[in-house]
Amino acid sequence: MVLLGLRLPYIIAAAALVKASSLMGIPSEKQISYRAFSDGTWKCLDGSKVIAHSAINDDYCDCPDGSDEPGTSACPNGRFYCKNEGHIPSYIKSSSVRDNVCDEECCDGTDEDDGICPNRCQIVGETYRKEKAAEKIAVDKGLKTKRQWIVEAQTKVDSWENEKIKLEEEVTLKKADAMKLESQLKTLESQNQKTKHTCPTYTEEISILKNDISILKDELELLQNILHDMKRDHNHNFHDMAVKSAISGYDEFANRYDQIKSDIDENIKDVDSKVEEYSQITIGSKENDSHEAKKSAMDAVYETLDSVLPDSIKLNVLDKLLPKKQEAEDDVYHDGARHLFEEAESELDRLNRELDEVKQKIDFDYGREKEWLTLKDVCIEKDEGEYTYSLCFLGDAYQKSNKDGSRTHLGKFKKFEGSKENIYKKHLHDQGTRCWNGPERSVKAIVDCGVENKILEVSEPEKCEYLYRILSPAVCQEAVAQSAKIPIHEEF
Ligand code: MAN
């Protein structure tokens, strides 16, 4: 009995504890914060006020933070904890407590008086778990696809990197080549410049030569007359062997002379026509584009003179023509050098453009693991009744009328947008066709994890601003990371 007498205070204390631990609207781990002080008082959780412990859950709001009424609707800023055994615990607003409405988020019905809301947590929990399991399967499938895309993307980036290295080497070599050709060209240009300054023009030169020929012809005529007179007037009775051999040489020459003369006249005519042909080319040509033609005309003149002129004057005449012939050859060589340099320059430009393109492709942000690279320009569409909406990832979005097939551009990909964690889930497209009396059309596409690429729905919350809801494996994340913590539903 003594023992029983000793135990009584403990039993009362234990009962008080049980009462405290069964406070409505508080999770068990927080019950401890609701223990009374030895003088029977209690302090609001924000420390702002001390009230009687018995004032907790008395349907009157004492604490500014609403912490004294966790189990009633007395405090407007309070919250009520539903244990939801069999499902997921949750908090709801205090104002929803004892409002005779069975809350979705409080499936155990503890927010209402007994008998009003049945405890549905087992069945709700089971459905939820089934959905979650299906979701997990979908995420796993999506992740598998995403991982393949990441591998593909890396292979592609590797090949671009190799291409870049190759192009950089080619650019270096071509640059050196172009520099060498440029310096060769400059040397030729300065040499040509010098030659041009010291040489008269072709036509001047040819007329000098023609004049020389005519002088020589006159001299020949004179010589011929002298010999003719000598033959006629010499004393036949003197058998001077020197005179006799001169006369017989003259006779031989006189036999051939008419032929030689007509040949020379013929050939001079030929030269004249070549010169005429050449001057036509020179007059009709631009500064640099007919060097080849000039050279062949010059060659023809040179060859003709070479074949028609008697040996005695040929060397003298041809020597005078040689610098012109050389100049024509230099011009052609110069053209060739310029052509080679220009070719090297344009090849260098092409290589630099290719290099820039590859660099741009490498530097573009395709997502945390380049998961969007494989999807670039992959297109999806959705029929929304009046219009069929399409979107090509990192490309263009269109709205096509289902009535007349006309297509309106809604925007081209501009950037990813959003918080750091889900930055690659929001795609902004802009610069679409201008809206009548309004802005250019634009698209905000929000992508969630799915087994395949799919447009769920398209809406136009603001005129000419379109909202796409999309599913794609590209944004799937490891399931562990997603559900490491049991989410507690917060309604506010
Ligand atoms: C078309 C469509 C609509 C848009 C109007 C604006 O009808 O592109 O989506 O709202 O033009 O005039």
Main traits of this protein?
492 residues, alpha+beta, eight-stranded mixed beta sheet, two-stranded antiparallel ribbon, 7 helices, 12 strands, rod-shaped, disordered N terminus, disordered C terminus, binds alpha-D-mannopyranose
Characterization of this structure:
With 492 residues, the chain is of the alpha+beta class. It has helices at 2-21, 121-198, 202-233, 241-284, 291-308, 311-363, 479-482; strands at residues 41-43, 50-52, 79-82, 90-93, 379-383, 387-392, 396-401, 407-417, 426-431, 442-449, 454-462, 465-472. It is rod-shaped and about 180 Å long. The two termini are 55 Å apart. The site of alpha-D-mannopyranose (MAN) has 7 residues, from loops.
Give the helix level as a range of percent.
Answer: 40-55%
Tally the beta strands. 12
Bound molecules: alpha-D-mannopyranose
Number of helices: 7
- Terminal CA distance reads 55 Å
Q: Return the structural class.
A: alpha+beta
Which regions have little confidence, pLDDT < 50, spanning 5+ residues? Answer: 1-20, 481-492
Order of helices and strands: HEEEEHHHHHEEEEEEEEH
Radius of gyration: 53 Å
Within the largest sheet, what's the order of strands? 5-6-7-8-9-10-12-11
Instruction: Name the beta content range.
Output: 5-15%
The chain-level mean pLDDT equals 86
Characterize the biggest β-sheet. 8 strands, mixed
Dominant shape: rod-shaped
What is the element layout, followed by pairings?
Elements: H1 2-21, E1 41-43, E2 50-52, E3 79-82, E4 90-93, H2 121-198, H3 202-233, H4 241-284, H5 291-308, H6 311-363, E5 379-383, E6 387-392, E7 396-401, E8 407-417, E9 426-431, E10 442-449, E11 454-462, E12 465-472, H7 479-482
Parallel strand pairs: 10-12
Antiparallel strand pairs: 1-2, 3-4, 5-6, 6-7, 7-8, 8-9, 9-10, 11-12
Helix pairs in contact: 2-6, 3-4, 3-6, 4-5, 5-6
The structure holds alpha-D-mannopyranose.
Alpha-D-mannopyranose binds next to loops.
